[in-house]
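Before the break, one more example. Copy the sequence into your notebook; we will annotate it together after we see the structure.
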Amino acid sequence: MKKFLNEFKSFISKGNVMDLAVGVIIGAAFQGVVSSLTDNILSPIIGLFAGQNFDSLKLDIFGVTIAYGAFLTSIVNFVIMAFVIFLIVKLMNKVLISGKAPAGEVPTTKKCPYCCSAISIEATRCPHCTSQLSE
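Here is what the structure looks like once it is written out:
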């Protein structure tokens, strides 16, 4: 049992789990913002064209009320959330890719940490300042 608890402790303290937890919490908070945007701004504007509040669109069939306006509002919430998440992921990928060398290209030079000259990747001593390189 102790081994199991240690494994669980190791798992839960990994960075990915904590990042996921933070992402879920921020996502839930952001969902509230998007719901408010849709319910309080977008639905009333659309309601101007429909002649009534978008959320109040309902259909009564055999005594059962189908609130399709609320359902359509939920779809709009989903589309806005999906679009924002798409933009965030696209931005993150762009930031991560910009720091890397293009795929398939192997660097042939490196920068001397002492004189900042470009030197061969295989060099152990800088030909410009003659510094011994540790790499």
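The chain has three helices and four strands. The first helix runs from residue 2 to 12. Try to locate both features in your own notes.
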